[in-house]
Target: Blasticidin S deaminase, putative
Amino acid sequence: MDIGKRLYEEAVNLINKRYPTGYGGAAAMYTSSGKILTSVAPETINSSTELCIETGAILEAHKLNENITHTICVVRENEHSDFMILTPCGICQERLFYWGSNVKAAVSNADNSITFKTLEEIQPHYWRKVYKK
Model:
């Protein structure tokens, strides 16, 4: 099974387990050592303290000193609706750029197929390009 399908299935399985009814969302990330890290968004009382669905897996990668190579974020409105793939928001893209512009992120599209683009493709005018390494 290819990485995209594995990540999609991990995210869907986590949604079904963690959120058997109602809204649900989960992220799954693949690392260069072959690990799959998953996460959900924490439920908060104060909406100003919310974090993205991907944040937990990103933090786990940092904790384990793993390099993220692929990421997918999957949501559904309720247990009767279709699963949808969400492109990482700008904040998560910024977090993922830590591992370089070749990190592949699943992106939203009309047919909801599993399609990956590099961060370079998603953000061709990334601000850090002005700084020489």
